[in-house]
Amino acid sequence: MTLSFTSALKPSPALSVSYLERRRLFFILMTLPAVIYALVIGVWPLAQGIWFSLYEYNLLKPARTHFVGLGNYIDLLSDPVTRGAFVNTVIFTVGAVTVELLLGFAIALALWRDDRFNRICLALILIPVTITPLVVGLIFRALLLADYGLIGYYLAEFGLSDPRGLFANPSSALATLIFVDIWEWTPLVALILLAGLKALPGDILEASEVDGATALQRLRIIVIPLMLPSILLALTLRTIDAFRIFDSVYVTTGGGPGNATNTLMLHAVKQGLEFFNIGRASAISNLTLICIAVIAAGFILLIRKADRKANGR
After folding, report:
1. Which long-range contacts does 249-254 make (Cβ < 8 Å, 24+ apart)?
2. Per the similarity annotation, which family is this (predicted)?
């Protein structure tokens, strides 16, 4: 009985199973460091934070630690400082993200044409994104100080700001922080929306122009509906990032004056590192995480819906 050449080269079933097992084991070993890293850096601190939030746990009084269940969360809901921090966070997020989206869309439209001048402008406006929020906060704090700030001194001198500076006035501190965030992150929104604009089908735009549609009509009927996935993506990224604002607030106002610029993340840090109330700080962090998860889930559903609508499904 003779065997064909192909059948002779075909590996036996036992050999194939052994090869697949070794291949599977190889990929498991390759992904194992990443899994361990995620567990140590992400999952374990999260689980520990949830555990601490269920206890009355203060580092200054470790002997008085006891289980309170949802007591920390209930106390936060009735705490006026926490409610004020939540309101400040929402105002900051809505104000900053709204202006960043509108301004970023305008910049993206201005840089839509692919030429050398627009590429140079895009590279220049992306410079703020490369600076960390902590450094941006320090820069604007130095610029807006009423005593010797390059801008703040003249604003106070001509009566355009509080004599103590924009960050020292409760009515202008939060708005100034929103302006700082807009300055830093509008270029990122513009870049995301510009990528969406460049992905638009050119034949549809050319056909609409031939049919006599004006630029405003093309923008309203064609561009914006097809851009919805990119718009929602930019909204998702910026909303999540703005809701957990901490760095720039910490180095500019520290949550003041009073609690005028106190945010949820800053409030959590104060509870944990100033008052050493680990239980309450963990509860605040978990509430912030829940809010971010709800925001992200809502935006993801909207993105999927917009993507199906844009693709005609």
Report:
1. 249/137, 249/177, 250/134, 250/137, 251/134, 251/137, 251/138, 251/141, 252/137, 252/140, 252/141, 252/167, 252/176, 252/177, 252/180, 253/167, 253/173, 253/177
2. Belongs to the binding-protein-dependent transport system permease family.
Q: How large is the average pLDDT for residues 142-168?
A: 86
pLDDT digits (tens, 9 = 90+) for 40-76: 888 888 899 999 999 999 988 888 889 999 999 999 9
Both tokens assigned to 182 = 């807009």
Residues 75-102: what's their mean pLDDT?
Answer: 94
Residue 96, classified by CB atoms within 10 Å of its CB into exposed (0-12), middle (13-18) or buried (19+), is buried
Residue 190 is which amino acid?
A: A
pTM for the model = 0.85
